[in-house]
Amino acid sequence: MSVTQPVRPPRRRAPRNSLNPDRILDAALTLLDRDGAEAFTMRGLAQQLGVGTMAVYSHFRGKDEISDAVAQRLLDTIELPPGGSEDPESELREVCVGVYRLFTEHPSALELLAGRPLRGDDAIALIDRMLGLLRRAGLGRADAAHAHVALMQYTVGSALWNTRRARALCQEGARERVRARIAALPSDTYPSLVALAPELLCQKSEGTGQFEYGLDGLLRGLLGGTPQV
């Protein structure tokens, strides 16, 4: 007795000659935001576009090149504050908040791109603006370079931390399990943790508000009267 194999519906293909770099990048962002960084493969991207994998290679040499182009497209959406103000600290804050919001709005893209060096004009403009602001704020050459790296590490790291934490806490019953775990801790062994549990578990200690709290403290520490050299 023969068994009839299920028939797969034919893959819907894109119209001939309709593929271009912009369509590929649109599809890459859609794939990342919908399915996560682990789904971002050349084959998966081709399926998203409805084309053969080699058609994508006719526009980009590979996944790394597409990743760089995705990074550039995302960075292009950051609106840098108008230059020339008398408050470089506020400008620095605005730049960092813009980068943070970009990466929290595209968490899967963040995971894909966090380990890659930023290239291209938009990345260079962002770095140059931050370094210039740090110098205007009174930091010497070496301190400005170190402060720029510290601000980017904090900003990108916070975005990654908060998106992963939010994803974990969105699971059914996750918050309740965390609260119950802390409530069950012996106060004589963990006195500070138990005493500050309400503050630690407050939603105000999450997301953008928490990031901005830490950013303000970091900026105050970095710009606190360092002599210019």
Automatic annotation (TrEMBL):
<feature type="DNA-binding region" description="H-T-H motif">
    <location>
        <begin position="41"/>
        <end position="60"/>
    </location>
</feature>
<dbReference type="Pfam" id="PF02909">
    <property type="entry name" value="TetR_C_1"/>
</dbReference>
<feature type="domain" description="HTH tetR-type">
    <location>
        <begin position="18"/>
        <end position="78"/>
    </location>
</feature>
<dbReference type="InterPro" id="IPR001647">
    <property type="entry name" value="HTH_TetR"/>
</dbReference>
<dbReference type="InterPro" id="IPR009057">
    <property type="entry name" value="Homeodomain-like_sf"/>
</dbReference>
<dbReference type="GO" id="GO:0000976">
    <property type="term" value="F:transcription cis-regulatory region binding"/>
</dbReference>
<dbReference type="Pfam" id="PF00440">
    <property type="entry name" value="TetR_N"/>
</dbReference>
<protein>
    <submittedName>
        <fullName>Transcriptional regulator, TetR family</fullName>
    </submittedName>
</protein>
<keyword id="KW-0804">Transcription</keyword>
<dbReference type="InterPro" id="IPR050109">
    <property type="entry name" value="HTH-type_TetR-like_transc_reg"/>
</dbReference>
<keyword id="KW-0805">Transcription regulation</keyword>
<dbReference type="GO" id="GO:0045892">
    <property type="term" value="P:negative regulation of DNA-templated transcription"/>
</dbReference>
<dbReference type="InterPro" id="IPR004111">
    <property type="entry name" value="Repressor_TetR_C"/>
</dbReference>
<dbReference type="InterPro" id="IPR036271">
    <property type="entry name" value="Tet_transcr_reg_TetR-rel_C_sf"/>
</dbReference>
<dbReference type="GO" id="GO:0003700">
    <property type="term" value="F:DNA-binding transcription factor activity"/>
</dbReference>
<keyword id="KW-0238">DNA-binding</keyword>
